[in-house]
Design goal:
The chain is α+β, with helices and mostly antiparallel strands. The chain has three helices and eight strands. Strand 4 and strand 5 form a beta hairpin.
Length: 172
């Protein structure tokens, strides 16, 4: 005696077995969840006023973790990127160093400067660096663009208005 199975039931049985055999799906941890711009309360308020260069320099030095991105294609997660902005005595004139870590491993450093531009009586603060890549790696150097900063929050705008990314950091 032979046994035949209806193809419909085979598909359903296959799906049920695959669900039962799957490992638990990990929930997003707080470490890699992409936080919305609205969750950066201080930075959100700064869009209504301009900052001064000395205010930026007051807060920038230290360790920062990427916690959100503003992009054309939203994602639920962000990469594990950390940046250490250093105030190095003896650095090249008007330049400082930022060390970049991806997945807790150092990938390189970039020289940067904080510059202030006044256009139509409005201050624009820019973080500028000399290279497109981080220390001759193939990693994109995101340490460039408009900057807004509070004591615990930092935004680097690589051209959000023209579909470029924005990087949102929290101090760690």
């Amino acid at each position: 005696m032979s046994c035949s199975v209806n193809p419909k039931y085979s598909i359903v049985l296959g799906l049920v077995l695959s669900f039962l055999s799957c490992n638990k799906v990990e929930k997003l941890s707080k470490d890699n969840r992409n936080l919305a711009f609205s969750e950066f309360k201080c930075i959100s308020k700064l869009t209504e006023k301009s900052q001064q260069k000395d205010e930026v320099l007051k807060y920038i030095y230290g360790n920062w973790q990427l916690r959100g991105m503003i992009t054309m294609v939203p994602s639920d997660t962000v990469s594990n990127i950390k940046v250490t902005f250093k105030d190095i005595i003896g650095a090249p004139i008007n330049k400082q160093i930022a060390d970049i870590f991806i997945n807790d491993k150092p990938v390189g450093s970039v020289l940067y400067s904080i510059n202030e531009y006044i256009v139509d009586n409005i201050n624009f603060i820019q973080i500028e660096s000399d290279s497109f890549f981080i220390d001759n790696t193939k990693e994109y150097n995101f340490i460039r663009g408009g900057i807004r900063i509070c004591e615990e929050e930092l935004m680097i705008d690589n051209g959000i208005a023209s579909d470029g990314p924005g990087y949102l950091f929290r101090k760690i």
